[in-house]
C-alpha cells in the first residue's frame, strides 16, 4: 500500500456520518497514538490516491468530552475540501504523518486496487 510512506499511519472505512453529517473522525486509540492526548490544530494534506486531486485543509484534534471529569472522546474535525467532497461511505481513509511531519489523509476509493475492504475501526498500518 502506498500509504506505507507515512509514519505511524492508521486506516478505517468511512461511514456516512463521518462524511456527510459530522465532518469528523472519532479518535480511538490508533488515532491517539498518532495525534496525542492534547487539543491541537493542524494543516493537513488531503490526497485522492491515483489522481491529481489534492489540497491542504485545517483539521482540529479535540476532546469532545473535555469538561467531563471521567470521560474522554477525541475527534478529528476536518474542513470541507475537494478530496473529502469526493468521499463516499465504504471508501478507506489513511491518516498519518509524512516524512516532513505533515499530517496526511489519503482517500482510497472502493474501486482502487489498494482499497483494503471494510475496516470497521481505526487499524494501525
Distance between the termini: 9 Å
Helix content: 10-25%
The topology string of helices and strands comes to EHEHEEEHEEE
Instruction: Report on the biggest sheet.
Output: 8 strands, mixed
Output mean pLDDT.
89
Point out poorly predicted stretches.
Answer: none
The counted number of beta strands is 8
Beta-strand proportion: 35-45%
Oligomer: single chain
Number of helices, where a helix is a run of at least 4 consecutive DSSP H or I residues: 3
Radius of gyration (CA) equals 14 Å
Q: What gross morphology would you assign?
A: globular
Strand order of the largest sheet: 2-5-4-3-7-6-1-8
Structural class based on helices, strands and sheet pairing? mainly beta
List the helices and strands and how they pair.
Layout (H helix, E strand, L loop, with lengths): L6 E7 L2 H6 L2 E3 L2 H7 L4 E9 L5 E10 L10 E5 L3 H4 L6 E6 L5 E6 L14 E2 L1
Parallel strand pairs: 3-7
Antiparallel strand pairs: 1-6, 1-8, 2-5, 3-4, 4-5, 6-7
What descriptive keywords fit this protein?
125 residues; mainly beta; eight-stranded mixed β-sheet; 3 helices; 38% strand
Briefly, what is this?
With 125 residues, the protein is mainly β. Helix content is 14%, strand content 38%.
